[in-house]
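Q: We require from you a single protein entry containing the residue sequence and its fold in token form, and nothing else.
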Amino acid sequence: MTTTVIPLATYRNDSPYPFCPGCGHSTILDRLDEAMVMAQIDPTQVVIVSDIGCAGLSDQYFATNAFHGLHGRSVTYAGGIKLANPNLTVVVIMGDGGTGIGGTHLISAARRNIGITVLVLNNLNFGMTGGQHSTTTPEGALTSTTPEGNLETPLDICATVGVNGAAFTYRGTSFDDDLAKRIAEGIATPGFALLDIWELCTAYFVRTNRFSRRGIEQTMQELGFTPGVHHRRDVAEYADRYRAAHAGDAAKAPSGRRAIPTEFGSALRDPFTLVVAGSAGAKVRSAARLVGEAAIRSGLWVTQSDDYPVTVKSGHSVSTLVLSPEPVPLAGTAVPDALVVLSADGLAKARPMLAHMREGGAVLLVPGLGDVTTPARVEIVDLESGDVPIGKASRALATLAAAVKRLGLFPVEALRGAAGEGPFAERNLEAIDAGLRAFS
């Protein structure tokens, strides 16, 4: 049986554009549509990424996948999407405002040569928020923030990304007859492609500067910003290089990537939230991570979120684990089923949770923290009751070992398995034994 493939005549949907009369955005989006028709890409394999500004409205007018995010961050989102699925065709639509707000992202994407195509809808000012000057506003131009003339040198976008490794750059205007072909060329480029497309902002820039198509061409000439293709390089694309470097070679796999075996079981039937609250620098997050891995070894799904101050080594350190027999949302609930408090810093941070805990919940405290008021039951885990002193770096894991045993979350042997690997295995296993002795 022969299947007939009918070529797509458009990638647009039926929604009319919202742009001002004479704005170049409409024309550029029409040329993008023509470019995709030339390429005949499966629309389910296309992602259009946008951010804020008039250009940021563009993605919703195409019958493809879309991602809309924060101003200047569209290149970052697009790079992540491409790395996650290199088979996708990823097109960024951003304004010149985003080239300033997200300039570092542009440079980094060019350096890496990530295979995305960036269309900069460059109308030389912030057109959505009042006509303020942007990174590409020509020197001397009048804007709402430069009423006496812009004093800044405009950014040469093509030169900036080109010198940093872009595979393809092009400068043109929304009036160019070959714009669709140039966009198609950018999309077909395996690596990072950028098209700096100059256009008219009829709401602001045209009005304050008596600007026109001729004005665009004259300004380019005065600045020495030559139109046309500036860079065309055959450079290996980053996502392909990354996968080639790590394909089928465990020794080359990124650090920390390994399979966690499921060796044990758990009696948990519902999600269980465990919060560990201690002091920064006391291995709270490391100990919580081992408990999380032990839960995975017991057939549970786990999420972990951590909270600590910018000082890192002083103040609180709080880890939230959600353990569940089924896939769970991100950790972050403020009302735990069990709260393990390891220090006065941790108690100060966790104290607002205590009043909201349920009667069936549990609060496990190390000695010396004083009385706490909570509907949950309160128990003391005294690590100093044994004959062997427990060092500061081991107290969090020792207390959590006792907590896992008291709460019956999963077999303690699963925690031993998680802790028995790596350079700190001996110390970790000693801490677990100390915690279990305290429990007994």
User: Anything to note?
Assistant: Residues 272-439 form a domain with the Pyruvate-ferredoxin Oxidoreductase; domain 3 fold (CATH 3.40.920.10). The longest strand covers residues 316-324. The mean pLDDT is 91. The chain has two domains: 25-242, 272-439.
